Amino acid sequence: MLNLENIDLVNSTSDQVKVMSYSFFIWTSIFAIINQRVHLKNHPKKVQDDIKNRIVSIIHGALTFWAAAYIVLVEQPSFGAANSQTMQFTMIISASYFVYDFLACLYYDLADMSLVSHHSLAICGYAVATFSKFGAPSSIWGLMSAEVSNFPMHMRVIFRQVGLRHTKLYEACEWTYFALYIIFRGSLVPYMVWNTWPESEVPLLVKITATGLFLQSVYFIFEMKKILTRQYFQYQERKKKNIHHYWFQVNPRIQELSYINNQKKDKVF
């Protein structure tokens, strides 16, 4: 059994590996339970697998966001500070999730190149910060900024997959996701990168990972702007034709809209 009171996640590699192994087992077990309990028989198997895996992602996002927020707001470490036990634990828990999710997405054929590159960089960044004993504050800031929009991000995809894209429920999730993403990533991530690079103790790979998160954020913010612009013109057409979205079901009159059969999948996670 793992005794949390007697582990040293800052100086002991064996303890780090032990917590990583236990955490990976827990994430895998959570998916196994969800896989047994959640049934979506009216949808293709790949959609079912993706939704079940997203539920695990939502759990990870909620846990790590609050852990990261506690560290940032309560412990308030400087960007050049040495890693604390709490920081190490949070990074290892998150890294083990990314390893689980990477393998799960490969196994269930849910992975694409953006996921492979994102998860690989995240795992490497966590590993370097954990073993070098520096760089955790930057990683924690990045984690908090990224996971704050986790829940609405996944819910919008789940609603889309079960056929509720053209509903107010989907729109509420999408707009909440965009708002949280733009506000937090547009402010906290640049602040984190700006304060990370001058710190000589922070490993180079952690700085590169932080910069990668910033560049990804800028790219997706511009993509979101395009989506919102397109949605404005779609709203104008619905208003002109007096067609309204319902909250929990699709209005059958949406088939009268010119854009309904020409919509592409928006790639903003």
From TrEMBL:
Record's GO cellular component terms: membrane
Organism encoding this protein: Paramecium tetraurelia
Designated name of the protein: TLC domain-containing protein
Pfam families, per database record: TRAM_LAG1_CLN8
Signal peptide: none
Subcellular localization: Membrane
Keywords carried by this UniProt record: Membrane, Transmembrane, Transmembrane helix
Topology of this chain in the membrane: Multi-pass membrane protein
Taxonomic lineage from the root: Eukaryota, Sar, Alveolata, Ciliophora, Intramacronucleata
UniProt xrefs under PANTHER family: TLC DOMAIN-CONTAINING PROTEIN 5, TRANSMEMBRANE PROTEIN 136
Keyword Cytoplasm on entry: no
Positions of the TLC domain: 46-233
InterPro entries per record: TLC-dom, TLCD5
Highest rank taxon of the organism: Eukaryota
Bilayer-spanning residue ranges: 19-35, 55-74, 86-108, 175-192, 204-222
